[in-house]
Design a protein that fits this description.
heterodimer, A: 341 residues, alpha/beta, Rossmann fold, 2 domains, 5-stranded parallel sheet, globular, B: 295 residues, 9-stranded mixed sheet, two-stranded antiparallel sheet
């Protein structure tokens, strides 16, 4: 049994997604802990010769390339067939993929076909032992899939004791991508797609497709001004944009603000949104549910503006301003302009 | 073309409005302290189904929900808004199910209730788990194609459906043959409100599970109504009714196990607390500028 760690690499055209490189980095560490190999899967069209140098440097031992016209753009069934049939052959113990639209479409389908457990939107992955007290069974080296659950009120550690692969999806930005060795010599296997994907699987026709690069640069911004439910309205968000403009910052939001329709879904920071690590994080009217904190806790300096002195986010803030966003933000703009000249 | 549609819906605790008593002192979830609601994205799914029913006379929309007796509320709510009927899938054997075991149970119920189904529509994800796994897993269990992240059904004719869906950084229009599974985003059209006539018609509809202990249909007020109007007795299915394999249901059929659950306590930092006064804000900005934190 091969028992290796696999990462499904998501590809747009010939570009490997950042989240996949982040997972390769994590996958390398997990494979080292387990003493096994790291393998990557890339499926698309016209990718052979184009993606290897975006994947192998992250410490990949073996890369499986599936290159065929029907594999790009992504559709559910052909990519499922690639993974399911490859995994039946290779028997990985762990499979990681991005928790974005593709990974969240593909992961559950693959897990269902293989009857293996899948945990969505993990915020940490570790290896450790597990005792099933009811069955009196001990397991070594299981994948701990750690995620906030139940509206962020709890953090759960999930394990898959019996079924393989142990599958997990992780959002972009949660893990850090680090090149291990730019010249890492990995084995590249160009697979015969027809052996893995029967013709009958090509059932979705993509009629039209518009993809544009992200409108914001939240992930890389040195300063983030984030608004929560306490901002109160769309107009309130306009104020945050003004502050962001003078500070050369990006605007982000909590889920509550997105759900309330104050701003675009793209701006959501947290477990089910973007993870950010800015130098300065200004939380405006954000109470600080665990899911939100999961996406910003590694920020350098945290400033919390909140009318509720007991807002949970104040606990992790370096500066706490007891006041309303409406009152404080214009003052920050005013004094920044005054003092920075 | 008339369509046969199943809508998958879930009753969920309203995790968006979590009060201080939502957690027990032991760190477990106090479900009774949270109001139970119709999972929001399942309402968006219901709307897409009802639109297809409007456009295709003779179509039928059936709700399937899995849960305890009180989850039948979801079926009534859907009927108030236009669904034709529904089934509560309920059995102790289903308890403790993860997404895979849930999907298995739902797939057996769909096969039982509507073997010739054209479309299965559900919300993208439920707010108590946010996994978005059940839709694709049901599709796989039934061997059907899936279209996730649906924004709008653009057309459905000649056995083909065309759907606009959200993808990362954009939108996509895709076509699939029927039958297939759709999952619908919260940004899709909101569900139509209750129809007053339908509320009057279905407000007494009940599942057998909901009858008070040691009560039969004949003991209920308006007992004659339940005799005359079959639609007031909502469908109820057990594990045995849908021929589900027990080893694939509930806790036993769930590959994922919860190892532990923790209440997260933030490591408190020493923070500088200030007021919203001009002096305080001015002082803060000056401090941040002096340390080159900003600017």
């Amino acid at each position: 049994m091969a028992n290796n760690v696999f990462v499904y690499c998501e590809i747009e055209g010939t570009q490997v997604a950042e989240v996949s490189q982040e997972l390769l980095t994590k996958g390398r560490k997990l494979a080292d802990t387990l003493g096994v190999k790291l393998e990557a899967v890339a499926a698309g069209h016209g990718i052979t010769g184009m993606v290897e140098n975006q994947i192998l440097p992250y410490g990949v031992d073996r890369l499986h390339i599936f290159d065929a016209e029907g594999l790009a753009p992504y559709t559910s069934k052909p990519h499922t067939a690639v993974l399911v049939n490859l995994f039946k052959q290779e028997e990985p113990q762990i499979c990681l993929m991005g928790a974005d639209v593709v990974g969240r479409d593909l992961g559950p389908r693959v897990s269902s076909a293989l009857h293996s457990g899948l945990t969505a939107d993990c915020t940490a992955l570790e290896i450790g032992p597990h005792d099933d007290k009811k069955l009196g069974k001990h397991y070594d080296q299981l994948l701990y899939q750690i995620r906030p659950a139940f509206g962020g009120n709890i953090v759960a550690t999930i394990v898959n004791p019996e079924n393989r692969p142990q599958m997990a999806t992780v959002r972009s930005g949660v893990m850090k991508a680090e090149i291990l060795d730019a010249n890492n010599p990995g084995e590249v296997i160009v697979q015969d797609v027809a052996k893995f994907v029967p013709e009958t699987e090509y059932v979705t026709r993509v009629l039209e497709r518009h993809v544009q690069a992200a409108k914001n640069n939240l992930k890389g911004a040195p300063i983030v001004v984030a608004g929560g439910y306490g901002v109160g309205s769309k107009e309130g968000f306009a104020q945050l944009y003004e502050l962001a403009k003078v500070l050369h910052a990006e605007v982000g939001a909590s889920r509550a603000a997105v759900d309330a329709g104050f701003c675009d879904h793209d701006l959501q920071i947290g477990q089910t949104g973007v993870t950010v690590r800015p130098k300065v994080y200004i939380a405006c009217g954000i109470s600080g549910a665990i899911q939100h904190v999961a996406g910003m806790k590694e920020s350098g300096i945290i400033i919390s503006i909140n009318s509720d002195e007991n807002a949970p986010i104040n606990q992790i803030a370096d500066y706490v301003i007891n006041g309303t966003v409406e009152e404080v933000v214009p003052k920050m703009i005013k004094y920044y302009k005054q003092n920075s000249k | 073309m008339s369509l046969r549609i199943v809508v998958l819906a879930k009753q969920v605790p309203d995790t968006r409005n979590v009060g201080p008593d939502a957690m027990t002192p032991e760190g477990t979830v106090n479900r009774s302290a949270l109001p139970a609601i119709f999972n929001p994205e399942d309402l968006n799914a219901l709307e897409q189904a009802l639109r297809l029913k409007d456009q295709n006379p003779g179509s039928i929309v059936i709700i399937i929900t899995m849960g305890p007796g009180r989850a039948a509320e979801v079926i009534r709510e859907a009927m108030y808004r236009g669904a034709d009927g529904g089934y509560l899938l309920t059995d102790r054997a289903f308890a403790g199910a993860d997404t895979l075991a849930t999907s298995y149970a739902l797939s057996t119920a769909i096969k039982h209730v509507m073997p010739d189904v054209d479309l299965i529509i559900g919300g993208r994800q439920a707010i108590d788990g946010d996994t978005a796994q059940v839709g694709p897993q049901v599709a796989e269990k039934l061997g059907l194609n899936q279209i996730t992240y649906t924004e709008e059904v653009l057309s459905c004719k000649d056995g083909k459906i065309v759907v606009k869906r959200h993808i990362d950084g954009g939108v996509e229009t895709v076509e699939s043959a029927l039958p297939c599974v759709l999952t619908v985003n919260g940004s899709a059209a909101p569900c139509r409100p209750r129809n007053v006539k339908r509320v009057m018609q279905f407000k007494r509809a009940l599942c057998e599970m909901e009858l008070p202990k040691d009560t039969t249909w004949a003991d209920l007020p308006y007992a004659d109504q339940y005799e005359k109007k079959a639609y007031l007795k909502l469908g109820q299915l057990t594990c045995a009714d849908v021929n589900a394999d027990l080893s694939q249901c509930g806790l036993a059929g769930s590959p994922t196990k919860v190892k532990n659950v923790e209440n997260i306590v933030f490591k408190a930092k020493e923070s500088k607390v200030m007021t919203a006064s001009d002096d305080d804000i001015n002082g803060l900005i000056q401090e941040l500028l002096a340390s080159h934190t900003i600017g």
